[in-house]
Amino acid sequence: MATTLQLDFVSDVSCPWCAIGLASLRQAMAQLADEMQFTLRFQPFELNPQMPPGGEDIGEHLTRKYGSTPEQQAQIRETIRQRGAELGFTFNTEGRGRIYNTFHAHRLLHWAGEEHPEQQLALKQALLEACHRDRQAMDVLNHEQN
Length: 146
Description:
The chain is an alpha+beta fold. The chain has helices at residues 16-31, 58-66, 70-87, 103-115, 120-132, and strands at 3-11, 36-44, 56-57, 98-99.
């Protein structure tokens, strides 16, 4: 009987490095599938909990937060794109125009973990792809109900 290992993956859907980390983890899990079984749960980590409802221009945000120049940001995006490609995750080479608060994405992932834990990974993957591959804004999850 294979040993079962429970893993908690703490991340934010707006973080490209988290997408790379998950792709790497899934690759490692697949390599060990004959020896171990894995239970994967997702825990929230908001990179930008104070992000305003309308989000921010990604370039301005990265410059303010990290002091990076547009040239440095382009170089980092290319590094991320290459690493993602090595793992089978596609990043849009144009980058994103805006970055948004991800609180409601975390709420949705938590709900999936409680109600449909077998679907939480698929939801996490879909959110990462929507954000980083398809350049879909996470702001749709931030609109208040009337």
